[in-house]
Input
Amino acid sequence: MGRAQSAAREVNENPVVQIAGRVGMVFYGILYVLLAFITAQVVMGDSGEQADQKGALGQIAETSYGPFLLWVTAIGLFAFALWQLLEAAIGYTWIGKERKRLGKRVGAASRAVTGVLLALAAIKYAAGSGGGDSGAQQKELTAVVLGWPGGQFLVGAVALGVLVIAFVVIRKGVKKSFEEDLNMGELPNGTRKFVERTGRIGWIGKGLAYAIIGLLVGIAAVNADPEKSGGLDKALHTLAAEPYGVFLLAVIALGFFGFGIYCFAAARSHK
Output
C-alpha cells in the first residue's frame, strides 16, 4: 500500500501532470463562464440552450472551430479528472484534521467523476451525436427508482444528500474556506482580493443552484412524480417561472461566472 501511495504521489507531483491538470481546470472554468451566459439568457427569456454544463458544451459546438475545440476541451477535462483523482487518493496533505482531509478528498473524487462525464459528453458533441438531455435522463432515473420498493424514501434520501452538499458548498463560500487550498500568499494584494471575492460569489452561487435541484428532487419524492424532478436545466427554468425567480437566477448567473473566474485563479495558485 505504501509503494502504491508513493507511486501515486510521484505521478501527482510530476510537472507534466501538474500542468495538464491546471490547464484542465481552466477548461472547467470556461464551462462555468458559458453556463453563466446561458443562465443569463434564461433570465432574459431566451433559453434555447440546455441550461447546464452540457449546454455550455453545445455553445462550444456552435462555434466555427467547434469540433476541434470540443476535442481540446475533452482532453483538458480528462487531464483535470486525472489531477482530481490523484488529489482524492493522496492529496490535501496540508489539511491537519483527518476528517476534514477526507471530506476534501471525497470532493476531489466527485470532481473527477464530473470531469470524465463532461469529457465524454464533449466527445459526443464533437462526433455530432450530442450530449443527450440530462434533464430527461434525470427524470427517467427518478421514475425507475420511484418504482422500487421504498423508492420514495430513496429519492428523498438523494434529495437530502443534494441539500447537504448545497449547504457545504454555500458554507465554503461564506467562510472562504476555499482559500485553504490556494497559495494566497503568493498572489499580489489586488489579485488576492479579486480571488477572494470571485471565490465567495462563485461557491455561494453554485451552492444555491444545488439547493434548487435538491428541492426539486425532494418534491418528486413527496409527490412520487418523476416529472417534478430534474437536473440543473430543469431547476433554472422552474425558477424562471416564479415571481422572484429572475432575481435569484441573476444571482446564480453571477455565481457561475464568479466560480469560472475562480477556477482560472485556482489553476494558477492551487497547492
